[in-house]
Amino acid sequence: MKKLLEVQNLTKIYSMGSIFSRTKITAVEDISFTVGEPEIFTLAGESGCGKTTTAKIILGFEEQTSGAVMYKDEPIKNLRRGDRNKVLREIQAVFQNPFSTFNPLRTVDSYFYETLINLKIASNRKEAEKKIAEKLQAVGLSFEEFSQRYPSEFSGGQLQRLSIARALLTDPSLIIADEPVSMVDASLRMSIVNLFKDLKERYDVSVIYITHDLTTAYYISDRMAVMFRGNIVEMGPAEEVLSNPKHPYTRLLRESVPEPDPEKQWTTRVHLAESEHEEYLQTGCKFVARCPLAMEKCRKLTPPHFEVNGTSVKCFLYE
Ligand SMILES: Nc1ncnc2c1ncn2[C@@H]1O[C@H](COP(=O)(O)OP(=O)(O)OP(=O)(O)O)[C@@H](O)[C@H]1O
Ligand code: SF4
Ligand SMILES: [Mg+2]
Known about the structure:
Layout: E1 2-17, E2 22-37, E3 40-44, H1 51-58, E4 66-71, E5 74-75, H2 81-90, E6 91-94, H3 98-101, H4 108-118, H5 125-138, H6 156-168, E7 174-178, H7 186-203, E8 206-211, H8 214-220, E9 223-228, E10 231-237, H9 238-243, H10 248-255, H11 296-300, E11 306-308, E12 311-313
Parallel strand pairs: 3-8, 3-9, 6-7, 7-8
Antiparallel strand pairs: 1-2, 1-4, 4-5, 9-10, 10-12, 11-12
Helix pairs in contact: 4-5, 5-6
The structure holds adenosine-5'-triphosphate (ATP), iron/sulfur cluster and magnesium ion (MG).
């Protein structure tokens, strides 16, 4: 499969506080992965593990501390302004809360016309309408039910479909969807998540799907990475990672979903104590305090990634 996006040794350290007492938070630490063309790649992991930070850096909303993001073999950061804008048009985002995507006082269609005209994708209203109708159809909505209506006239599920249609206006190669269904009614989640699979199959769009829900990840992902405290601890084909989890952390997550079943939501969230963040400079495995299989060396040395059955596992058990 051709490589569309490559994240290389990406690290993001946030500095907070005053000049007298600085706290540093390592949100993302030395992560690397690729996204194929087309492919659905999932980033999964509990709250605070660095999923959104990774997405923000790829989208150019945040700057990395070190490492690189390559799009079609070019580092996004070094591109000249015009080229960079072009790339950022090819990478679109869909966020968690569809109600904050659209201003309640504006009709939803005004956003669509504005995007098409501003980006010179359509030169007149008729052309714009044609383009909009095509994208609405791709997400299972019709032009009639869309025209001249305010966000409050749509359900959360419909609004999320509209956010996806809007993201499609620029004919992106990659959509980054950050928890796109966590605020949508449980009964509608699977149908919206399946939409991403549809877009991949019909339009060759790649998707980075960010979630803490392993069930939806299981159904739509080609490959996935499990993150823990800024690291990728396990990565490989989604089927292998979820049916045969290797890293002790992935196993722990997997146990909270007995069977991949869309009716059963993965609800366990293991929150980190604030003080744990301060350990960022220490060596050793970050999971050591909670690992039932921890060994002496796990405290002293940082485990590298080991290859096991086509997956990569950051754990000394696979040395
Ligand atoms: N702007 C910021 N300034 C300081 N720290 C931040 C900032 N943004 C994120 N962080 C911290 O970085 C870490 C990773 O946050 P991030 O939002 O990437 O996690 P996440 O995996 O998306 O979590 P969630 O599932 O809750 O959305 C967290 O500890 C968070 O508190
Ligand atoms: S490296 Fe050691 S502590 Fe870390 S997950 Fe593996 S066995 Fe557990
Ligand atoms: Mg997040």
